[in-house]
Amino acid sequence: MSEETVTESVPPVRQWPALDLDGTTFDPVLTELMREGPLTRIQLPNSEGWAWLVTRMDDVRTVTDDPRFGRAAAMDKPVARPAPDFVADRGAVGFLDPPDHTRLRRAVAAAFTAEGVERVRDRARGMLDELVDELLQDGPPADLTSAVLSPFPIAVICELMGVPAADRHSMHTWTQLILSSAHGARISEKARAEMSACFSDLIALREGSTGEDVVSLLGAAVGRGEVTLQEAVGFAVLLQIGGEAVTNNSGQMFYLLLTRPELAERLRAEPGLRPQAVEELLRWIPHRNAVGLSRIALEDVELHGVTIRAGDAIHVSYLAANRDPAVFPDPETIDFSRSPNPHVAFGFGPHDCPGGMLARLESQLLMDALLDRVPGMRLAVPAYRVPFRKGALIRGPEALPVTW
């Protein structure tokens, strides 16, 4: 963006630094931006220009579901870069607009329906029980992250994806290197290339497959000529990486339950509340740092009396929308009885997270298993000593020391 594109009264450009926040602290810069108005302008640390930002639920839903705002045009906009080492793959599903985006999402849709997710429930519960068995056998103290919260989502997403057991450790290692900015661009790009090569081999082997896992569905779609191998590989990488976000989300959930034990006790006493509690915690926890990818206005669009010019970048904040007081009365309060709860923790519109239903299943299974089987669980260190990930796009505890 350049100031020459602005011909009317607009808000000033606000610098939004990359903050490494501990615990469940809500970003103070985002709080200020929410107060300043429904439409503000920001400059992120890794960008070369400013972008618009919307924070209210109605506007977030409008921008994410309006074809006048596109993702494909963001490929060539440095303002869209969410991390210093981020390299966009041309043709990746995150940068596609309909109909190409619709075509690619359709190829794997069956795996992420209620029926598709239900297919892995029993296996997921069995894997979780084994992890909790080991946790109890080893005894306290323990790192809940390394013992349960990390290996469980890895196993589940690999199960849904159809990744062989022999490749699962590598998938996890690559994901951590891709998501972290601490290792530099070369290491991140190498990890992505290695994960892509693995998926390329797996998908190519399953062309013509009738399997129900994601790799088989993609292989079949490639075999029918509906998607290219390059598109299928890029989508598989995105889904695999996204599947591990549950580790960070559940880490924040349990950090919250361990630091507010009255919430955990209520859920032990009222297990019927747990599905609603998962929804409320998904609404409330700050999932990520700053914002994700931008969209680009494909034509002039008026919003709140301001014209978003064609070519301007615009970000939405799902975190801010989830605390919009016009939608959620007393939004700072965690209310397990909140209903309705139309949060956008998994996004909105065509680019919403396809794994939302799977993440809900995993969160509910984790809550049941750990609340019921480890009723005396508590933090083994003061809350301020729980280490949180640094330099990561997705927020969460690096370790969660517990005892019981």
Characterization of the model:
With about 400 residues, the chain is an alpha+beta fold. It is built from 16 helices and eleven strands. The chain has helices at about 30-35, 55-65, 100-110, 115-120, 120-140, 145-150, 150-160, 170-180, 185-205, 215-225, 230-245, 245-260, 260-270, 275-285, 320, 355-375; strands at about 15, 40-45, 50-55, 70, 140-145, 295, 300-305, 305-310, 315, 380, 400-404. Strands 1-2-3-9-6-4 form a six-stranded mixed beta sheet, with helices on both faces. The longest helix is centred in the middle third of the chain and has 21 residues, at about 185-205. It is globular. The model is unreliable at about 1-5 (pLDDT under 50).
Could you name the key traits of this structure?
404 residues, alpha+beta, six-stranded mixed β-sheet, three-stranded antiparallel β-sheet, 16 helices, 11 strands, disordered N terminus
Helix-strand blueprint:
Layout: E1 13-15, H1 28-36, E2 39-43, E3 51-54, H2 57-64, E4 69-70, H3 100-108, H4 114-118, H5 121-138, E5 142-143, H6 144-149, H7 151-161, H8 168-179, H9 185-205, H10 214-223, H11 229-243, H12 245-259, H13 261-269, H14 274-284, E6 295-297, E7 301-303, E8 306-308, E9 313-316, H15 318-321, H16 356-373, E10 378-379, E11 401-403
Helix pairs in contact: 5-7, 5-16, 7-11, 8-9, 9-10, 9-11, 10-11, 12-13, 14-16
Q: Low-confidence segments, ≥5 residues, pLDDT <50?
A: 2-7
Number of helices in the DSSP assignment:
16
Mean pLDDT: 92
Q: Can you give the helix content as a percent range?
A: 40-55%
Radius of gyration using CA atoms only: 21 Å
Topology pattern, helix = H, strand = E: EHEEHEHHHEHHHHHHHHHEEEEHHEE
Which structural class is indicated by helix and strand composition?
alpha+beta
Q: What does the largest sheet look like?
A: 6 strands, mixed
Dominant shape:
globular
Percent strand: 5-15%
Biggest β-sheet: strands ordered side by side in the sheet? 1-2-3-9-6-4
Q: Give the strand tally.
A: 11
Distance between the termini: 54 Å
